[in-house]
Specification:
homodimer, 11 helices, 276 residues, alpha/beta
């Protein structure tokens, strides 16, 4: 299988490395709009050849679009005319409804995908062949999805140790709004709210702060796209979160320990259900 | 040094274990309002003898009050009459202004303390002798604090591998409101806001969700007290956080990618300053 990688960053780079280590990729062609990133991916052994998007499309049996979600439709148009017959295309974007809708019209054998893995790091230097081991990958086929293409993409993810789950694209977006997009938005806003705090804070943060805000260290490029593309589900959850914060604030202001304890119990139960 | 432990939970138990392993504690007497917890601490080798609070006070050279913060003043009153001459008393509570004010009036050799370490776990079974290694401990002496007592408490924390920092009690409360109490409140509210979400979420959370909400798994007993006792600084920060969330929500609703990117940059810079 000749692999084509469009976007040689954290997720794309990790997938290429993992497929190579699993012996599941032959030659790997990589493109990146940032030429330095493609060169770095080449020198790190993530790809065998840095090429243009059209060259990658012409060479690959399986193409992975690992670019910010709002760039995916243009990327699909850029490769459409150059693809080999039978080539399978997938993506790793954090939203699926608009991506699948757009790509299905452009590419005959497209399968939407989203690995539930990642980190706050970015760029080819952060590529990690173990990133997907034991993690879930959501694939979002629709009635029109080519079944062979779906099988090929599912096999690719299983080859790197992931478990494949299928889900409707719209349902996917609602789920990740809750378990990923809301927590990222909350962590960014929390850190931004601490901008004016005095320098004594530096170095006094415990593990709780570090862990709970680690996702706020993620560079903004991909997250601007995610927040904009998934704004419907995300805005609803931000409103629910605002209301819950207001409830907690009111209980604290009123000195109502029983109300605080009740909210904490509800929170712990909800988390236990989601994380289990 | 005979150690007296009032409260045999996660922090108190970890400290006793760590002092024993460092060879810095002789006999350890432990009390807990939950008799089963004291018995468990005894069987785990955290304490040598389970006793009443008065017995612990009568036996110990150094007493550590490791109970929820709103229980500390009553605890101080309970031990005051039974203390050995020269006995040093400290605490591990997450707030300091009210604790230090109350205890200074009751105990002649009291030093307020707060280890910047912990986890979402609770009870003697979660005691971890390595919990404080490499961590900071904030001590909050005032003009009236006995200097020998301060030295003894600082030595105790250095014996378990921690670095001691001194800070004014009120300043301490403002700092921890930012790096600890606000993140805990935010994580509890976030999880509570997801209560109504569909069961598909279970098992699909990635590492980002698990890490960012881990602190929301902490049992509520100590946090109700912390939120109530530190409500002044915490309410101000909750308001700043509410405003920042509203700003992010407005940018997303307006489709303003530049505003979202700007907020993310501010958040990342603030976090880098605090965590560094």
């Amino acid at each position: 299988v000749i692999l084509g990688l469009v976007g040689c960053g954290h997720i794309g780079g990790s997938l290429a490395l993992a497929l190579r280590q699993a012996g599941a990729a032959g030659r790997v062609f990589g493109a990146d709009r940032d030429g330095a990133a493609a060169a770095r991916a080449l020198s790190l052994g993530i790809i065998d050849q840095a090429a243009s998007v059209a060259e990658v499309a012409a060479a690959a049996d399986v193409l992975v679009l690992a670019v910010p979600v709002l760039s995916i439709p243009a990327c699909a148009r850029a490769i459409a005319g150059a693809l080999r017959p039978g080539a399978v295309v997938t993506d790793v974007g954090s939203t699926k409804a608009s991506v699948v809708r757009a790509c299905a019209q452009i590419l005959p054998r497209f399968v939407g995908g989203h690995p539930m893995a990642g980190s706050e790091r970015a760029g080819p230097d952060s590529a990690d062949a173990r990133l997907f081991a034991g993690k879930r990958v959501i694939l979002t086929p629709t009635a029109g999805t080519d079944r062979d293409a779906l099988g090929a993409v599912a096999r690719m993810w299983r080859d790197v140790g992931a478990t494949v789950v299928e889900m409707d694209p719209t349902r996917h977006d609602a789920v990740v709004a809750a378990v990923s997009h809301l927590p990222h938005a909350a962590a960014y806003a929390l850190c931004a709210a601490l901008t004016g705090e005095a320098p004594e804070l530096a170095g006094l943060s415990g593990g709780g702060f570090i862990d709970s805000t680690r996702i706020a260290a993620t560079p903004g490029a991909m997250w601007v796209d995610v927040f904009l593309d998934n704004r419907g589900p995300l805005l609803s959850l931000l409103d629910a979160y605002r209301d819950e914060l207001a409830r907690l604030r009111a209980a604290i202001a009123a000195g109502d320990g029983a109300a605080i304890a009740g909210l904490i119990d509800v929170a712990r139960a909800a988390r236990a259900r989601i994380v289990s």
